[in-house]
Amino acid sequence: MAMAAILAMLVTCVAMISLPMILGAVFESGDGNGVKDNPSLSANSGGSLGITKSDSANQKVWRAGEGASPGSGTSTGSFTPATGSGGGRAGAAAGGLSEGFYGSSCPQVETIIEQQLRVILQADIGQAAGILRIMFHDCFVQGCDASLLLVRPTTEQTATPNNASIRASSLRALDTIKAAIEAVCPGVVSCADTIVLSTKIAVKLSGGPIIPMRTGRRDGLSAASNQTVVNNIPPPTLNITALKQNFQNQGLDSRDLVALSGGHTIGRAHCRFVDPQITPTISTDLNTAFALNLSRICLPANNSIKARQTTHLDFITQNLFDNSYFQNVLSKVAIFHTDAALTNASDTLQLVQLYAQNQPLFFQQFSQSMIKMSQLNILTGQQGEIRKKCTTPNQYLNA
């Protein structure tokens, strides 16, 4: 759909929908309960949950490297997608990781996770975004070691960036998945790999790409400090220079920044993060009609249940993993300043424009960037441990 058409549709919807209907569509507890099911999660004619024929076709295109020419319908000239560390073949070793790492020790692991996630996402499709967010917040802080899941002897979950945005229900979902794995393969699959594989499958079931994640991570023994979390998780107020630097500190480049930002195609935001964009004045990041809609939802004068109020990150295809986020950014109907900031540098703007018109290419780069992120400062071999319970190091289980 053309960007102008999307914006026109949004403005029309804002004008036509009454305030009670708007609030009914977006209200939920801060924990993500009450999100309506995604119709794409119903079994389709192919019998594959959450994957439509169109999605499958897109995935075949980008996995084969066909049909993703940057010159097709774009003005990006010589841009070509990066191969990065995510361009390896299946089974290739990467820093101690490999595809099929559990082929002998727990060959059912992805089947177990998918069975659990089908039930979880049927009840609340918003958990896909919750699990994706957990992976991001875990990997950006002392690496992908599942330290975010620890609650004893210390925890990262109460650190300022996490306390405000990590869903307790998504943490419980991962506990459920880990327990199901332990029932079949005790002491084999790490919590770090459980996060990564759950994210892979949640993205797939939401209509996104099938990411060939490598496994073999081990779990960290301790949580990071509050200051370490604050220093590494980018707040939604950063300008493009600071945002790029934050990602560069993790070994990630502009392609990774833009592609991973595309994860905002699913999920919700608490109004306390929206308010700086709409008060005391409306930010120039936002289309005026869209900002007025957000004001009706979020401003205290209009909202007696402010502490729990949330709003969709993507109003167009709310629970579907697609490229509409980039169309929203260009139309100024994306919520955070960090979303709008992607248009303030020529390289990131070029990528936003490209992905807005080419979903298979976005899927390709998102896959590569997710693989790169999943390999940040990992523990392998004899490092760390394989936690039996993700909330607790093994030494404390019988304490």
Q: Your description of this structure?
A:
With 399 residues, the protein is mostly helical. It has a single domain, classed as Peroxidase, domain 1 (Orthogonal Bundle). It has 17 helices and two strands. The chain has helices at residues 3-16, 19-26, 53-64, 109-123, 127-139, 160-163, 168-184, 191-205, 226-232, 240-248, 254-261, 271-278, 288-298, 324-330, 337-340, 346-357, 359-374; strands at residues 268-270, 310-312. A two-stranded antiparallel sheet has the order 1-2. Helix 1 (3-16) crosses helix 13 and helix 3 packs across helix 17.
What is shown here, in short?
With 399 residues, the chain is an all-alpha fold. Helices cover 45% and strands 2% of the residues.
Summary tags:
Peroxidase, domain 1, Secretory_peroxidase, 399 residues, mainly alpha
Task: Describe the secondary-structure layout.
Layout: H1 3-16, H2 19-26, H3 53-64, H4 109-123, H5 127-139, H6 160-163, H7 168-184, H8 191-205, H9 226-232, H10 240-248, H11 254-261, E1 268-270, H12 271-278, H13 288-298, E2 310-312, H14 324-330, H15 337-340, H16 346-357, H17 359-374
Antiparallel strand pairs: 1-2
